[in-house]
Amino acid sequence: MTSESEATRDTSADVERRSPEERRARLLIAIGAAVLFAGIVLAVTDDETGRWLIVGGVTVLFLGLHRFGRLGPEDATA
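Above: the chain's sequence. Below: its structure in token form.
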């Protein structure tokens, strides 16, 4: 069984190993999800801005997922 600190070190090692393209794709996905969530919250109040945020969030999320998927499969040695 691993301790909490060992699990944290493994996670930080994984983050350091990621390529800049993968980091950018993950950031794009996070931004798209946040904008989409903000749009949904605003759209509940029937706000026009919320509708545009939903469209923008879905678009950015789609681009991030597409870019992440185009990075290719992980190597089997990892």
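The CA atoms of residues 36 and 57 lie 4 Å apart.
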